Please model this.
Amino acid sequence: MSFSSEIKQELNKTNKLANKEIVKYELIGYLISGNIEFINKSNIKFSTESDYNINRLAKLLSNLEINYNIEISGKNFVIKLKTTDINEIVNCENKQIIIKEEIKNETKEENLRAIIRGIFLGSGSINNPENKYHLEITFKQEENLELVTGILRKLGISCKKMKTQNKYSLYIKDGEEISKFLAVIEANKAVMQFEDVRIQKEMRGKVNRLVNCETANLNKTINASIEQIAAIEKLQKTGKFNKLNDNLKEIAILRLENPDMALSELGKLLKNPVGKSGVNYRLKKIIDIANE
Model:
């Protein structure tokens, strides 16, 4: 079962059916979703492969005493209903479903959450967070897209809009915003799952960055050591090594004996210990002499 299906299964079990006002607002969400289609001017249908999803919509309609028929078309469950039966809560004109003005001005947070829950159930999807963060909801009418993005802003959630010739959609690709969205629609189990995955991914990312940083530093140390040793061996072959002063000879011998050692550690082995910058200065001096 996909992550989206698990969320819709959880929401199907959400007990919000005793409050008819909340039921009405969740139904509105379904009705403005991208999966609602007009059969003709007086009939619409909602199609889904999810039995959990169709059951939830059927419960909402039954609760509000709205007549409907359920059919099976291939792999899809289809609910059909008349536009005249839903005209009290939405406008159905010119094969468009638009929310009524009085509902657009709704401010009660619980009702706004219900609309978002319904629209997600109707035409929303979320990728498996193990792969990537991506939530998307589709619409048939641009007006409904604008309305829902406005509701999400009121609820403190940021999203982006996408418009093509035949489809309108909003999407979220930020993990924290998707987690907040799931909390808004009251998919509490999904929030915990999503956050668990998100935390693990962030931890893996931090570990990888740390390992990459340490590897880069190690490679830098090794490359510098190779250059330093090559310079020292060159001076030995050309007979110039014995002409070095005592400080340079001492650090050169320590480098040959400890090719993998960090500069700060080499400095501690000197008769008169010096810091990393002091060791670096002496080894650079050796390289400069070798290059002359």
